[in-house]
Amino acid sequence: MPSTPPPPAALLALRDPAPLLERVRREWGGQHALWVFGYASLIWRPEFEAQERRDAVVHGWHRALRMRSRVNRGTPEQPGLVFALLPGGSCRGVVYRLSPDRAHDELDRLWAREMPTGVYDPRWLPCRTHQGPVRALAFTLSPRSEACLPALPDAQMLHLLRHARGRYGTTLDYLSETAEALAAQGVRDREIERLMRLVRRHGLVIRTAGEG
To answer: Labelling 179: which of 29, 128, 172, 200 has CA 20 to 30 A away?
Structure first.
């Protein structure tokens, strides 16, 4: 039986996600509800049971399609992109409240999905909601991270959207689902809207009825 090739060196350089999960568990404490902030796929595919969902705004961070994905939306040979929270600006999304008795198990599932290579920096961020402020766990990215790319030229972005595919599907599908979810809750994101115009113009998605 042939041996399994070693993982690429770039993957070996990433952090072990287990200590990061344990740190988050300690900071949370387990005695009260756990809030999680979603700004992209966690809006349209949360995959956990939440007791409550609220629209929310985070200040000091913005959503950007600049994180290299070698697992979820790409491969080591053809990396894709996923959204991350980068410093500066603000971001509208949602927060979810998880009950203390379920949150430990839900955190395990969330980590397997969001932190397979430990690339995000999990942070507790103050979130504004109509019902009042909450402190929520969010997945941020340092601009100094190896996984953080500069804004790509449109030609390079189009190539990636045509070809990048990972265990959860294509980067193009991920972008489109996020755009639809934000539009459905009345959130304007100018860069996402610009990217969707770009991919439509190049025939990568079909305009649906009612879109301008």
So the answer is: 128
